[in-house]
Amino acid sequence: MTKPRTLRAKTPADLLALVPCVLGFHPEDSVVLLSTGRAGRQVHARVDLPEDDQTLQELASSLLVAVRRAQVRQVALVVYSDDQCLALVSVGHLRSALEEAGVEVVVCLRADGERWYSLDGCDDTCCPVEGTPYDVAAHEFTAQSVLDGQVTYRSRQELADSLVGTDPDATEAVGEAADEAMRRFQNAARHPLGMDSPDGARQHLVTEGLWVRSRVRRYVSTGEPLDPEEAGRMLVALVNIEVRDVAWAEISRTDARVHVELWRDLVRRTPLDLAAAPAALLGFAAWLAGDGALSWCAVERCQEAEPDYSLAALLTQALTSALDPATWERIPTDELTLFTG
Question: How do beta strands 74-80 and 30-35 pair?
Fold first, then answer.
């Protein structure tokens, strides 16, 4: 497991280079909040830049919930926008709300990709300020992230797009394997005389649940990817919530990043109609690994496939309230209903 590294931002240029390292992508038209100092837990949040008062008030409320939950005392605000007036209004409202809650805003910046502008000491008027050039690509933080093997996407949309496969042949092969796995399940659920058999279906699910657990553990141990037949079998098995929970119970904080790679690979090869379960598992693993941006994108992919998927709703609640992954208690395997029911 990669040892977490600490990057200390001492200047505005450092802070701007730190943001994509933390988020995993370069934000656009966004408000970014980063916790600073050593006290409390870390909170890093990115939201779309609000364009009306109601959205701005909702943004302030959600950020306050996050910083209060984590007991954060100091934050930095960075607005990514070409619109100086909109940035000033947004920062002014957010700064007031945070300071009223006892949270110190140590620095406020606006960045447009080429220059950064200090918003400290400004009110919500459109006063012109002279910007300072910056180059994130040439910064030591960026170089270090490359050495560490971290992929930083050019935008949040590019991060989201990375969950959509670009190899139609691979997706087709997995889809065909899933069709075959579904036929096997339907055959297992029938009596020799052709009558539906609940006992047969249940036994098949238990068998599949045991295989899912074994195959997930093998990936965590060896990194051996799922071949198309295994991927199709996995997808069909995960349609059942009890089997899905078997895979969910395998994810822990110590190996969450390995599970991210497992489920990311499967999501990229999965036809959309079967993507809900693996995308939700990817989102959970990413959240547990501290990668909120990837978790959000996985939730959106899940909801694209199945809007009311319950695990996606649970993750949405955890992400919007900045729930600390350290509070998660792993599901005891002896409580899995597939094996105890």
Answer: antiparallel
Alpha-carbon distance of 99 to 171, in angstroms, equals 50
Torsion of CA 257, 261, 264, 266, to 10 degrees: -140
251-295 pLDDT tens trace: 999 999 999 999 999 999 999 999 999 999 999 999 999 899 999
Tokens encoding 165: 């496969």
> What pLDDT is recorded for position 193?
40
- In this structure, the answer to whether residues 264 and 323 fall within a common structural domain is yes
Domains identified in the chain, total number: 2
Angle between helices 168-188 and 198-222 (to 10 degrees): 140
Q: Helices marked H in 39-153 — which ranges?
A: 53-70, 84-100, 140-147
Q: Which residues contact 148 (CB under 8 A, 6 or more apart)?
A: 2, 5
Q: What b/e string do you get for 248-275 counting C-beta neighbours within 10 Å, with b at 16 or more?
A: bbbbeeebbbbbbebbbbbbbbbbeebb
Element (H, E) at 30: strand 30-35
CA distance 302 to 11: 39
- Count CA within 13 A, CB hemisphere, residue 309: 29
Name the token pair of 288. 């547990």
Same domain for 129 and 175, yes or no, is no
Look at residue 4 and tell me if it is in a domain: no
Instruction: Judge if 59 and 116 occupy the same domain.
Output: yes
